[in-house]
Amino acid sequence: MLVGIDVGGTFTDGVLYGNGRILESVKTPTEDDNLQETIITVLDDLLRGRKGEDIRRLVLSTTLVTNLLAAGQGDEVALILIPGPGLNLRQLQFFPQAHIIKGATDFHGRITEALDGEEVRELGQKIVAAGIEKVAVVGKFSQRNQRQEGQVEEILLARHPHLKVVKGFGVAGELNFPRRAVTTYYTAMTQDAWGEFAASIKRALVQRGITSPIDILKADGGTMPLEASLNSPCETIFSGPAASVMGALALTMDEQTAVVVDMGGTTTDLALILQGKPLHASRGAMLGGYYSHVRSLALRSLPLGGDSAVRWTGEEISLGPDRLGPAACFGGPVATPTDAVNFLAGGHLGPLSLSQEALARVAHPAGLKTETLAQDLVGQVIEVLKDSIKEMFKSWEEEPAYRIWEIVNKQRVKAQRLVGIGAAAQAFVPILAKEVGCPAFVDHYSPVANALGAAVSRPTLSLQVHADTRQGSYYLSLDGIVGRCKGDLQLADVKDLARKHLRQLAAQRGIGQYADRSEVFLAEQFNMVRGWSTTGKLFDVGIKIAPGVIDDYKGV
After folding, report:
1. Which domain holds residue 499?
2. Are the C-beta atoms of residues 25 and 445 closer than 8 Å to each other?
3. Which of the listed residues 328, 349, 380 is the one where a domain comes to its end?
4. Is residue 549 within 8 Å of residue 457, measured between CB atoms?
5. How many angstroms separate the Cα of 354 from the Cα of each of 264, 282, 351, 368, 400?
6. Domain presence at residue 124
7. Per the domain annotation, does 492 fall within a domain?
8. Burial code of 84-106, b = ≥16 C-beta within 10 A, e = fewer?
């Protein structure tokens, strides 16, 4: 049996899948200040009357890191940057405790300016005096020579062994120094809190006799082992929206192009499935307002949900962005957009009288008929969603995969359907689909599709290879792996090298069976010229195991 649990902003959903069908599903309110307890409650409800040892796989999608960053509740971190010449980071508004020091490594991985040890020692004293215990150290091109990041760590720990140092080369190995700095900074900020969360989950599972692998859903729609997530907690950000996309894939299991509309109680998430494949954000996930090296699906979250509170302010009718509870027709305290749909549908979702009374409490002070208010609310929600989808298509057009698809297929991308996910999808997605001009797909499992998506998502893995024939070496963006290469290396050889390392790393992570689901997403070659002669070549190749469903899932 497979278990998927998705922690949402309003509800936490769980599914138990086995024998080709969903055996059990659970939906319970999320306790933001105690996510562990919420998850265990859902798990216990799923396992009622069943043995923990029968679980073969358990996947979690959680908001923990998202909440930490949104609330600024992670550990205080000092960021030490070794940029060398070029970009003037002093002009960038980086983080409060960001420090730039001497030292430089060039793009070949050669150290061109030594560190100033005394400068690092003085900085360490300053950091400790400020009461900071976490340090992120990031050097430009450290993924091609990690020595200076290691030297900073050695100097700091020699005098302050209690400090915890996170080095950039071990967090992200791609180019773009500012994004690597952002990723490393937020990794240091969230690592301890995520570690405590992971440990508590492991203890709870052991107590229940569950010995199966525990995976975490990532922002790119794939999974990774819980143990691997301890070093990469930021990979789990936006796992909730990613779960909705994977849930849509799990419910449809075809190659149509679809807009995914995940409408929960508090927010609505939008995403695109392009001919059966989720569209990725080429610039990575945004952490704290900065682009990062965390691979993510192309997503947008709106502060509008089926339970958004409706009020009369004395001057106008406001819609959200907060949620005070469920819709009135489900026992909530105030009118919501769901009540508007329920009223217009004659009580199709819940008791008509409860929705009517709640809407009337807003309509009468505003001098409106209840029916007029309900129509206006539904129209406002649909208009916001329709405009947001149009805006998203404009941003999706900037993604390379989107543009390549249009070039190859010689036509513009057009949604073939809207896939509704979440508790409020049944009420709004059919109406929205008519406005957008395509069919709606809302399955009876849509309310718990996020949990299903988590349960059946396959592992993903992405790496990049940079090869330099003049130096006779290559570098991987994962695990600090380096190797030697020949001077007559060609692009096809680097692709083969990338596939080889992907297979090896996938096998080490226990996901070797999916290594053949790889696709090359980057292939570049540059000639290095001195005088009139080519002195070497630079190659950059990116390869990934793309998101999808596990082999033994055939649909529900």
Report:
1. 461-545
2. yes
3. 380
4. yes
5. 20, 46, 6, 18, 49
6. no
7. yes
8. beeeeeeeeebbebbbebebbbe
Encode pLDDT of 29-45 as tens digits.
Answer: 888 778 888 889 999 99
Q: Is residue 537 part of a domain?
A: yes
Residues with Cβ within 8 Å of 206's Cβ and at least 6 positions away in sequence, in order, are none
Please say whether the beta carbons of 220 and 280 come within 8 A.
Answer: yes
Listed residues 365, 380, 395: the one ending a domain: 380
In 140-256, DSSP assigns E strands to: 164-167, 214-217, 223-225
* 163 burial via Cβ count (<10 Å: 0-12, 13-18, 19+): middle
Answer whether residue 355 is part of any domain.
yes
Number of domains the chain is built from: 2
The secondary structure of residue 144, as a DSSP letter, is T
Helix H or strand E segment including 386: helix 370-396
Describe the chain by its helix, strand, coil percentages, rounded to 5. Answer: 40, 25, 35
Residue 404: what pLDDT?
Answer: 77
CA 217 → CA 287, 288, 453, 454, distances in Å? 17, 20, 9, 6
pLDDT along the chain (556 residues), means of 10: 88 91 90 83 89 90 84 88 77 77 87 93 94 94 87 95 92 85 93 92 88 91 91 90 93 92 90 89 83 88 90 89 90 94 89 94 93 94 93 82 76 88 89 93 93 94 89 84 88 94 89 88 83 79 90 85
Burial class of residue 400 (count of CB atoms within 10 Å of its CB; 0-12, 13-18, 19+): exposed
3-state secondary structure labels for all residues of 487-518: CCCCHHHHHHHHHHHHHHHHHHCCCHHHHHHE
Adjacent-strand bridge partners of 167: 137
SS3 assignment, position 300: strand
321 upstream amide cis, omega within 30 of 0: yes
**What pLDDT does residue 448 have?**
92
235-282 residue pLDDT tens: 998 888 899 999 999 999 998 999 999 998 888 999 999 888 898 888
